[in-house]
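Translate structure to sequence.
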């Protein structure tokens, strides 16, 4: 039998002939697979079948590929971190230098932790890093917590001075939330300190570096989505902190325009993901998790721009479900009981947002799509009439939403 080198030479010579003759790509692919098969057969160690050796090679290549992907992700994260630091330095050099000193102190503490971990843990009690109370989101009390988390300037500055770099104290999964939170918290602190006259800051730099702010917000939204998909209870403190930071960003008069202008599509995707998490969750003990997601959606609705599109999305989902339920009821077919239970979370969010809009009498901001309102109200009376006996609670919600949409203060056409 020819040696493996001779086999390879013959095959590659045939490749060249194929390519020179311009034969089709399918033939070239078949010969490539044949060459790979010959190489595996001739190089397999004794005592192993060709199949076992092929699986071993595939696993080895896969592991190497994963290793390279991980290295790339690490390098990309480091590039983003450096860009974040550079942006903070451009906005407020004095603030950046002060925080770099504190970060160095945190690295020193981390070194001491290997000698005395208990002592290090006690020093981090008030750092906001990963300690704090791991309580689940309270009922709409989360909104009040959001206001309570807005400390005064001096308290905020002292709190920041205790925050070590978040990559020193979190796992990679937690890092997906804590890394952008750390940067965005600093951005918010600069905003507060500059507003109080303590610091000078140039926020026009945000216009010059849309990549950094957009990637940081995107990373935070992706991290929150991951944790909302697989919630843990009690809710980890960094998750609660991530939601608070997001809310602070979109409600801050100076920063919200920058964030929404650069990240609007990502915010829309985030809202859609949260809605689907609510609708598709089928776990037995899902209601506590869905309550947390619902409250996050409700808080997003505090921003007029996000509220408008969120109302439009909710109207569409509730209307489609009502039509599906009516169809199932008319033909006496089975309906999705789990989705029926979950849809009430969307109904409650929708009613809350419409009530807030009505109370504020903010007619100028009510520019969510008129067609969604019209689609929702079309034939709604007939839907309620046919569903009211079998599904009284759902019918009641539909009626209440329709009243809010039809009220004099909700003229949005």
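Result:
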């Amino acid at each position: 039998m020819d040696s493996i080198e001779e086999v390879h030479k013959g095959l590659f010579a045939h490749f060249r002939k194929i390519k020179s003759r311009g034969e089709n790509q399918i033939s070239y692919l078949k010969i490539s697979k044949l060459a790979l098969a010959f190489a595996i057969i001739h190089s397999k160690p004794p005592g192993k079948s060709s199949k076992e050796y092929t699986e071993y090679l595939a696993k080895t290549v896969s592991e190497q590929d994963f290793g390279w992907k991980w290295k790339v992700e690490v390098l990309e994260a480091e590039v983003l971190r450096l860009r974040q630091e550079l942006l903070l330095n451009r906005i407020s050099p004095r603030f950046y230098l002060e925080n770099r000193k504190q970060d160095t102190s945190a690295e020193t503490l981390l070194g001491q932790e290997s000698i005395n971990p208990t002592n290090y843990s006690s020093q981090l009690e008030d750092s906001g890093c990963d300690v704090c109370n791991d309580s689940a989101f309270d009922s709409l009390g989360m909104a009040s917590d959001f206001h309570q988390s807005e400390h005064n300037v001096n308290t905020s500055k002292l709190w920041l001075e205790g925050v070590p770099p978040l990559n020193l104290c979190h796992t990679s999964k937690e890092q997906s939330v804590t890394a952008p939170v750390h940067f965005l918290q600093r951005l918010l602190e600069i905003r507060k300190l500059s507003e109080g006259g303590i610091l000078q800051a140039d926020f026009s730099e945000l216009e010059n570096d849309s990549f950094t702010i957009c990637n940081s917000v995107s990373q935070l939204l992706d991290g929150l989505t991951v944790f909302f998909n697989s919630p843990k209870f009690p809710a980890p403190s960094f998750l609660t902190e991530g939601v608070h930071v997001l809310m602070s960003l979109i409600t801050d008069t100076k920063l919200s325009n920058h964030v929404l202008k650069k990240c609007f599509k990502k915010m829309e995707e985030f809202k859609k993901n949260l809605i689907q998490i609510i609708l598709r969750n089928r776990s037995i003990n899902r209601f506590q998790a869905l309550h947390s997601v619902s409250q996050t959606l409700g808080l997003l609705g505090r921003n007029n721009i996000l509220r408008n599109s969120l109302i439009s999305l909710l109207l569409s989902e509730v209307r489609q479900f009502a039509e599906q339920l009516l169809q199932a009821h008319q033909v006496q077919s089975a309906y999705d009981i789990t989705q029926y239970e979950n849809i009430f979370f969307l109904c409650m969010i929708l009613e809350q947002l419409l009530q807030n809009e009505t109370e504020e009498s903010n007619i100028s901001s009510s520019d969510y799509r008129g067609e969604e309102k019209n689609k929702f109200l079309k034939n709604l009376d007939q839907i309620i009439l046919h569903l009211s006996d079998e599904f009284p609670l759902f019918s009641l919600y539909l009626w209440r939403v329709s009243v809010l949409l039809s009220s004099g203060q909700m003229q949005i056409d």
